[in-house]
Design a protein that fits this description.
Elements: H1 11-16, H2 20-50, H3 58-80, H4 88-121, H5 124-137
Helix pairs in contact: 2-3
Length: about 140
């Protein structure tokens, strides 16, 4: 079987080569993406190192991790899968279900974590209701 990039006497592969100016633009884009993703990652690591669990700010830190991770994933898809050049409606067609699905997974994870926490540490509201119910039966 013949390779499709060599069809028509190498004319396709020759036409696919880019000039140096286009190469510079590609390298500039890669460095820009690397810098943006590195900055977001440094912020995430810095927040995780400075704000400890159990403080009042920890819920905000957890939500910021979720948001920054979703932003990084979306940005990677836009740049490296070349969706940034597509029409707005096409981007929404792809990212809409992604955001809905990610929101659902986050909701499920938080709900399950809260349920597990209540099972392990006991829910104060449940204990109060059980105590009240026990007092009324006697």
């Amino acid at each position: 079987m013949e390779r499709d990039d060599l069809i028509l006497d190498h004319s396709y592969s020759v036409a696919a080569n880019h000039d140096e100016e286009h190469g510079k633009q590609i390298r500039k884009t890669v460095w820009k993406v690397t810098a943006i993703l590195s900055i977001i990652t440094i912020i995430e690591v810095g927040l995780g190192m400075t704000i400890k669990q159990g403080t009042d700010l920890w819920p905000i830190v957890k939500w910021s991790f979720i948001v920054m991770t979703i932003v990084k994933a979306g940005y990677i898809v836009l740049v490296f899968m070349h969706l940034g050049d597509e029409k707005k409606s096409f981007k929404w067609m792809l990212f809409g279900p992604y955001f809905i699905f990610m929101s659902y997974l986050i909701f499920q994870a938080i709900t399950e974590a809260n349920h597990q926490h209540d099972l392990l540490h006991g829910d104060a509201k449940t204990e109060v209701v059980e105590q009240e119910a026990g007092h009324t039966e006697h």
